[in-house]
Each structure stands twice: as structure tokens, then as C-alpha cells.
Design a protein that fits this description.
Structural class: mainly beta
CATH class: Mainly Beta
CATH topology: Maltoporin, Chain A
Number of strands: 36
CATH superfamily: TonB-dependent receptor, beta-barrel domain
Number of helices: 5
Strand content: over 45%
Number of domains: 1
Distance between the termini: 35 Å
CATH architecture: Beta Barrel
Length: 691
């Protein structure tokens, strides 16, 4: 097996309305009570397939090769989603940064949803489904200018207890489910990574050593009481932790190029969430979901000696959503959310303000030290409403609006939304959607005193989306979608003194705000999605996405391609049920190479003859070679009288493609450049035992 290099691990440790792509459980996967069993409820039966072919079920995503029994990690095989050649732990969707996404689990926002290795924090035994809102989503979601991933876990089984043990080369997990009586039950799951026990054996250089081995943990639990088929009360807990740390050797290239890294890098991130949710369906058709949650988050990062950020927040959220029928095929949806965030922020940093638009973020360039110790309380209130009206037999329109008050930036947002669907002919539908959005800061340090600029405003975006879909037959659907997004008030670091402010003295320059809202952007593209539903023992889907995304630095008037500009992404996924106990599958993915800023030379530092300063080419001016790989998977089920077992095996990167994910510059003067490649061919085996 090819060994890992330090350059490949550095990024690893440093880090209902608008035609969404719905991933929902089918009726035969999880047994739920039926409203038809209650004589007081009038039921309207909708005839048709239980799983619409516009969706991809969790059962299918569980077996996507390379996902390791993780439906959410398999999101990468869906249109417009990219994990940037393995260098990011969260998905970039339609040209936006992963930091601009919002994540929900079981009705409430969570701290994060993907571990540092891109696997999700949810146990596959409990996932009921998820919604990927790639753009132009409805007003019930708040705090995202990119995409929304809304995952849900299933109800506990009120009849049958079970225990599931799942072990592979990457992680191990235990799941326990226990009914209490016919009206209530619970389950608990816990998992931890395993690669920390053997990752040292994969390293072939001696440039660094781990001070904290990369590892993660997660847990999830749910208790549900269902006094009737129209009401439920749920208590749920979920949490996750990721951490890693390393130290560079004294003669390493990293320290020669940036002595500020002496002391190493370490990071830890975790969250714990508890919530109670009440669901109720009334005889007049009114439905509501209301709940209260507490979310504790912490992020710690240390770089070099004396540079650290320590952020801890406690969010208290009260959220309700309602739906009321106003007539036949006419529904009013509305809701409200009140949140209060208590944040404690501590930090010290000796270095220039840095962002994704500046390729040189070395600590050695720091001529100022900023410190911060602040406790703040932030209150946010939002109201949302949408009117879903089937105006004619063939035309549905849903106008909506989100009204949000954010007191930290003292801003009031009134954001209209609109979506519509028109059946132009049997089996043919046209869709369109529009919406305006704002985003909570993922990097709060940019908004904090001393560290950043407390006068910053929240970033905003406008989305447009249109598409056409055609159901060729009962098991085959084709959808073509186009989108256009604009981003406003993007946060950017203070511009270079010599380039933009040559007439300012050093003191005047350092008095400028470290960050401002002086960047903007746009993204556009087309996506083709073909979904083949299960028939004749096989199913699969294919997608082709073409896109462009650009950013503008309004301080320097630079217009450039954004780092997530990957014009072409192709996914081919298929699975074949060879028999009732054996299935085979493959996934092939192609994507344009990542954009990078090349180093074209170096010059000796005037004050330190042993230090060289890199000379960069134009920002994001070089594209890495195209990334493609083939993953295959086999599942074999064994059934016994009181238990069952599944053996699964995956081969990742079957044909051994040396996919380049970046460049590493060697020596103090950056005189040599070598490719940093993604993982070689890897064989992974696992076993799942269900008792």
C-alpha cells in the first residue's frame, strides 16, 4: 500500500418547496403505524409506487461503493456535489463553499454532519432519509446561502428488540433498540473510528509525528412515546467529536518555509445536542411539529507557539412548523424560530488576516498580534410562511417569505421565495424557483473585536433555478436542471498594503479593518440526472453536471475562478441483485481537477537570509489533472434462526488512478514541486451482525 505524506494529512487536520432531491425511506424498509388503523381519521389514499423515482432511497445509498454503509457520505454521487478531491470533509454544492451550508437532523440544526474523513455522524441503522436542497429552497430553512442537508432518523420499533454490531477497517459501531410497550421504545448507537490504530504504519516520511492521532466518535439516541397514531413525543440526543494533532520535525520543509509552525498544529471539534419534539395531526387537517433543543459546540485550534482559537457556544432553540389545509390541494405552511446563543471566544494570533482569496497565509508574515477574550449573547428570531396552491389541475405555485431579525449585526431580512411546477403533458413537468438568503458566519472570528471586524454584515445570496423532468416509464426518470446564483457582501481579508494602499503608513494600514464585506460572486450550471428504479434485479443512476463559479475582489478589482470551480462532474452508479443474498455494485466518478495557485518562484527575505518568500502566480490560475476513480462493492447476507449477518467488501480506486489533489513544494526556497496524490487502491472489509 502506498504510504501517506504529511502534505496529504495537513488539510485533514486543519479543518417542500423548490424541487429538492429527496432521499426517503420506502414503506417496506421501516414499518410505521398507518393512519388507516384509526377510525377517527379520514384517509386519502394516493395510488402509485411507494418510492418515487425522483428520489434515491437510503437502502440504495447504503450500498453505494466507497460510502462504507453511509447514505450521507454517498451524497457525493448525487448531482452538483463535490468533496474537492478528498481534501474537504464537507460537501461543496453548486459552486459554494461547504461553510455556507446548513445542516439539520430531526428538525433542529446541528454543529456539523460530516467527520474529518467525510463520513457522516449518523448511524446507518437509524437513517430514515434526507433532503438535499441544492438551491432555491423554501422559507422554513434559515442561515444558508448555499445548500441545506436535512436528515431524519426513524422511529424506534415498538415490537421487536435488536442489537447490531458493525465493524470494518475504518470504524466500529454498536446499535441497541428496545421496545418498552406498544406505545413507546428507544434506541442508542455509538461508533468510533479505527484508523487511528494503524495510521502510523502508513507513513513513509519523517517530516512530522502525531501528537494526537486523528480519530472521531459519535453517538445518537431516541426515545419515542406515541399515545395515538396521530401524535408522538420524542426525546433525542446526538453528539460527535473529531480531533487530531501533529508536530513537524526540526529539519522539515514546512518549518523551513514557515518557522511560525514550530510547535505543530492541533484541532478538536465537538458538539452535543439534546431536544424534545412534539408532533400532532388534528382532525381538521392541521399538523404541527414543535420542539426545544440545546446545542453545545466547541472548536479549538492551535498553530505554532502561542497562536490559538477557543470558541464555545450554547444555543437554545425553540422551533415550530405548522401546515393547514385551506381547500382541496391548497395548504398554508408557517412557522417560527427563536434562538439564543451564548458564546465564549478566546484567542491569540500573530499573523496576517487570512482567507480563501489569499494563498500566502504564513505565520511568519505576522507583524501584528491580536488577542480576544469575549463573552456575548446573540438572539435571532425568524418567521416563515408559504402558500402552496394547486391553481389548476396542471399548475402549482408556492410563494413564501422569511422574515429574520439578527441582533448581533442588527439586521432585518425580508427574503421572498417562489416556486412553481407545471405539468405541460402527461409525464412532463416544468419547474422553477427563486429565493433570497443570508448566512450565519461559520468563522465567527471574522466578526469578533480585534480578531476581525464587528461591523461586518451577514453574507447574502440570490438563487434562480429551473428544470424539466420526464418519466419515460414507471422505472426511469430524466431530469434536467439549470441554476444561477449570485453572492453578495462576501467577507474578505484586508488587501495587501503595497498593492492597494501604498500611500498609507504602516500604522495607518494596521488600523484598517482586518475583514470587510468587499467580495462578491456568482455560480451557474446545468445538471442532468437519470434515475433507474429497481426492476429486473438492478437499479442505478447517472448524473452529469456542468458548472462555473467565480468571485470578485472589489478591493483590488480582481475577477477570478473560485477554488470550487470544477466545470464537469460525472457519476455512474449501479447495483445488481445477483440473488436474494448477494448483490454487486460499482461507482465511477469523474470530475475536473481542483484549482490551485502555483508558486512560480521565491525571493530571499530582506531581514532573514535563511527565509524565502514565495512568489505566487495568479490566484487559482492552474488546474490539477482530472480526478476519476472506480469503486466496487459486494454484499453477502447470511440468515439464521435468531440472527443474521452481512459480509461486505469494497475496493476503492480499483484501477489505481494516481489522482493529484495538490502540490507540495520542497526545500526552503520552494525549488522542487511534487504531486500530492489521493489514496491508492484500498481493499476494505466489514461485517454487520444483527441479533
Amino acid at each position: 500500500m502506498k504510504a501517506l505524506s504529511s502534505s496529504r494529512l495537513l488539510p485533514f487536520v486543519a479543518t417542500m418547496f423548490a424541487s429538492p432531491l429527496v432521499v426517503a425511506a420506502t414503506q417496506d424498509e421501516f414499518s410505521e403505524p398507518s393512519l388507516a388503523d384509526d377510525p377517527d381519521i379520514e384517509v386519502v389514499e394516493v395510488l402509485g409506487v411507494t418510492e418515487p423515482i425522483t428520489s434515491v432511497s437510503p437502502r440504495k445509498l447504503l450500498r453505494v461503493p466507497g460510502a462504507g454503509n453511509d447514505p450521507l457520505q454517498a451524497i457525493e454521487s448525487l448531482p452538483g456535489v463535490v468533496f474537492s478531491g478528498g481534501r474537504e470533509s464537507a460537501p461543496a454544492v453548486r459552486g459554494s463553499s461547504p461553510d455556507d451550508n446548513a445542516y439539520y437532523i430531526d428538525f433542529f440544526p446541528v454543529g456539523y454532519i460530516f467527520h474529518s474523513d467525510s463520513s457522516s455522524i449518523l448511524n446507518d441503522n437509524v437513517i430514515d432519509g434526507f433532503i438535499l436542497e441544492a438551491a432555491a429552497f423554501g422559507p422554513e430553512y434559515n442561515g444558508s446561502t448555499a445548500a441545506v442537508i436535512d436528515a431524519s432518523s426513524r422511529s424506534p420499533d415498538f415490537a421487536t428488540p435488536q442489537a447490531v454490531i458493525d465493524v470494518s477497517l475504518l470504524k466500529a459501531g454498536l446499535f441497541i433498540e428496545q421496545p418498552i410497550n406498544s406505545e413507546q421504545g428507544f434506541y442508542l448507537s455509538g461508533r468510533q473510528s479505527l484508523f487511528q490504530y494503524y495510521i502510523d504504519a502508513l507513513l513513509d516520511d519523517e517530516d512530522f509525528q502525531f501528537t494526537t492521532l486523528p480519530e472521531y466518535y459519535d453517538y445518537q439516541g431516541k426515545y419515542e412515546y406515541q399515545p395515538s397514531l396521530t401524535e408522538s413525543l420524542v426525546v433525542q440526543v446526538i453528539g460527535s467529536r473529531d480531533k487530531a494533532g501533529l508536530k513537524f520535525d526540526e529539519d522539515s520543509d514546512e518549518l523551513a518555509q514557515d518557522p511560525g509552525l514550530e510547535g505543530g498544529i492541533s484541532s478538536e471539534r465537538y458538539f452535543n445536542s439534546q431536544a424534545i419534539v412534539w408532533d400532532k395531526f388534528y382532525g381538521n387537517g392541521l399538523q404541527h411539529q414543535s420542539g426545544l433543543s440545546q446545542l453545545e459546540e466547541k472548536f479549538q485550534l492551535t498553530i505554532g507557539q502561542g497562536n490559538f482559537v477557543d470558541v464555545k457556544t450554547n444555543d437554545y432553540i425553540l422551533r415550530s412548523q405548522f401546515s393547514q389545509p385551506l381547500g382541496i390541494n391548497h395548504y398554508l405552511h408557517w412557522g417560527a424560530e427563536l434562538s439564543e446563543s451564548h458564546a465564549s471566544i478566546k484567542g491569540s494570533y500573530s499573523g496576517p488576516p487570512c482567507d480563501e482569496y489569499n494563498p500566502d497565509c504564513r505565520l511568519v508574515d505576522g507583524e501584528e498580534t491580536v488577542t480576544l477574550h469575549e463573552n456575548i449573547v446573540i438572539t435571532s428570531v425568524n418567521l416563515n410562511v408559504a402558500d402552496s396552491w394547486q391553481a389548476t389541475d396542471n399548475w402549482t405555485i408556492t410563494p413564501g417569505v422569511l422574515v429574520a431579525q439578527e441582533d448581533y449585526t442588527d439586521e432585518l431580512f425580508i427574503e421572498p421565495k417562489l416556486s412553481t411546477e407545471w405539468q405541460v403533458a402527461p409525464g412532463w413537468n416544468l419547474t422553477a424557483a427563486y429565493g433570497r438568503y443570508h448566512n450565519f458566519p461559520d468563522n465567527f472570528g471574522q466578526y469578533a473585536k480585534n480578531f476581525g471586524n464587528p461591523d461586518l454584515k451577514l453574507e447574502t445570496a440570490t438563487h434562480y433555478e429551473t428544470g424539466i423532468e420526464h418519466e419515460l416509464r414507471d422505472d426511469l426518470l430524466i431530469r434536467l436542471e439549470g441554476y444561477y446564483k449570485t453572492m453578495q457582501r462576501l467577507v474578505i481579508a484586508r488587501a495587501d498594503q503595497q498593492t492597494v494602499y501604498p500611500d498609507l503608513s504602516d500604522e495607518e494600514y494596521l488600523d484598517l479593518p482586518r475583514y470587510t464585506n468587499d467580495a462578491s460572486g456568482e455560480a451557474w450550471g446545468m445538471e442532468l440526472f437519470i434515475n433507474k428504479d429497481l426492476s429486473e434485479q438492478w437499479y442505478g443512476w447517472a448524473s452529469v453536471a456542468w458548472s462555473r463559479t467565480r468571485r470578485t475582489n472589489e478591493l483590488t478589482n480582481e475577477d477570478f475562478r473560485y477554488s470550487y470551480d470544477q466545470p464537469l462532474i460525472v457519476n455512474l452508479v449501479a447495483s445488481y441483485d445477483y440473488s436474494d443474498v448477494l448483490s454487486l455494485g460499482f461507482k465511477w466518478r469523474y470530475q475536473s481537477g481542483q484549482l490551485v495557485t502555483p508558486i512560480i518562484g521565491a525571493e530571499q527575505d530582506a531581514n532573514d537570509p535563511e527565509l524565502y518568500n514565495p512568489i505566487y502566480g495568479a490566484l487559482n490560475s492552474e488546474r490539477l489533472p482530472a480526478y476519476h476513480a472506480l469503486d466496487v462493492r459486494a454484499d453477502r447476507n447470511f440468515f439464521y434462526s435468531h440472527w443474521e449477518m452481512t459480509l461486505y467488501g469494497e475496493i476503492l480506486n480499483l484501477y489505481g488512478r494516481n489522482n493529484v489533489t495538490g502540490y507540495r513544494y520542497k526545500n526552503a526556497d520552494y525549488s522542487e514541486r511534487e504531486d500530492v496524490t489521493d489514496l491508492p487502491t484500498i481493499v476494505s472489509l466489514g461485517v454487520k451482525i444483527r441479533l
